[in-house]
Amino acid sequence: MSATTHTDRLSLSCLDDLPRGLFIAGKWSAADDHRQLVSLRPSTAETLTTVAHAGVTDVARSVAAAGAAGRPGSRWHRMSPAARSRMLHRIGDLILENADRLALLDCLDNGKPLRVARAGDVPAAAAVFHYMAGWPGRLNGENASIYTGSPERHLALTVPEPVGVVAAIIPWNFPLYMAAAKVAPALAAGCTVVLKPAEQTPLSALALAQLAQEAGLPPGVLNVLTGDAATGAALAAHPGVDKVTFTGSTEVGRSIVRGAAVDFRRVTLELGGKSPNIVFGDADLRQAIDGAAHAIFYNQGETCVAGSRLYVQRQVFDEVVAGIRERAAAIRIGDGLDRDTEMGPLISAEHRTRVLSYLDSARADGARVTGGQVPDSPGFFCTPAVVTDADPQAPVVREEVFGPVLVAQPFDTVQEAVALANDSPYGLAAGVFTRDLGLAHQVGRRLRAGTVWINSWHVLDPALPFGGMRGSGWGREMGKAGVDAFLETKTLINDLGNRSWGPTPASK
Ligand code: NAD
């Protein structure tokens, strides 16, 4: 956990060819007012680099560029589905060809272990592009039957059309993957995009813009604006934006909805979670312990789907919790560049303070907390924590911590487990560990969550719709639903006339 080493210097060379400007209309430029944004390296708390900080006029430039690039008659608008598909495949291929560099960028910028970024985030981002490349040629309308009219008189068609200019606003926890998850389906649908990465992790979005340029994406189809919350707010509120697709906190999601109500622009929201994980007494306990630890501690617990509430059937509660505590204590924490590191730092000093405040308040209320220590290091590290005996109404049980903090509680009956799991304003993900698959499916159907994992966690795929119920958001990403979210359906009706079948008209 020391300051800049030889390995660091080699790794930092991944920044050498990275543009730090705004990517608008296929060109790199400074912000109009030349402001800069600092990106820190969470493992050392040092400045990693600075990038352009987009302001209101830059937002206007990028939205205009995206509008022009998607206009009828534009190169993008006229591009065949086959060519669009090839473009998406090409970007996916380029992500894989540049996997080491992209993984390094996310490792340095976010703090996550390099091996996690290399084996997880980067191939997942490529897979989204490759999967979405299959859609352009399959976005067909219908030849619709008119219900109330004469079948011979009317020819009616439905046509899927791109929704238009998309503002894509993403958080810092999976920087490259989140960018891919927004951009690829929007492009598959024929939309144009202004992408705003999180202020903490702007770098891999800039690299993605470079790759899109290399793939030959027409100028203005993808624009990248680095900036902060104010940049995001200006983008989400711009009247030239037809749709906002947002991943981030529930509070910001709410403000985006309020803004979108002005002109009813389309909105997809992937928000927070407090996902319950139910372990039944008959489960394979080794698998359940590993699964529960993975559910909460993966990516430093900074995942929206983190399995942060654990409900364990009483007769195995002590054994499961002891197993998870043992796992937590063994997790190797350190700089993501170190190949032994299993858990990196949290994203920022402020975020760590917030995470620790949940533990302090739980302890003060009499809960038992293990872990949650701050190692002696300049980085924003925090050891994984397990909380038991907490008041069910305590903030650590009710609110999203977004860090490596698990709250465990025993239950006695299936009904009680389901009721506890559903007692949350969120509804993003849930899990069930049991050997009884019938029980797992029946409980799974009762859980109010967009995704339910059985004897597993964190299995996501571009073919599978992902999203939340209730406070976890609106709409779905991925799968066909994820492409449909970027389409409007137009109905075209042609009145063929009320023909009476008399003699065939004579030629004139
Ligand atoms: P955040 O909402 O503060 O920021 C997310 C993004 O929104 C950033 O790019 C930020 O600059 C921008 N932003 C901030 N204020 C804005 C505003 N008023 N208008 C428009 N844009 C604005 O979230 P965060 O703290 O960076 O990320 C953590 C949150 O994201 C957690 O709550 C987590 O659950 C959620 N998250 C959800 C998912 C999901 O798929 N459901 C995935 C990852 C993270």
TrEMBL record:
The keyword Oxidoreductase applies. Keywords: Oxidoreductase. PROSITE patterns: ALDEHYDE_DEHYDR_CYS, ALDEHYDE_DEHYDR_GLU. Residues 28-491 form the Aldehyde dehydrogenase domain. InterPro entries: Ald_DH/histidinol_DH (IPR016161), Ald_DH_C (IPR016163), Ald_DH_CS_CYS (IPR016160), Ald_DH_CS_GLU (IPR029510), Ald_DH_N (IPR016162), Aldehyde_DH_dom (IPR015590). It holds the Pfam family Aldedh. GO terms for molecular function: oxidoreductase activity, acting on the aldehyde or oxo group of donors, NAD or NADP as acceptor. The active site is at 270. Belongs to the aldehyde dehydrogenase family. This is Betaine aldehyde dehydrogenase. It comes from Micromonospora maris.
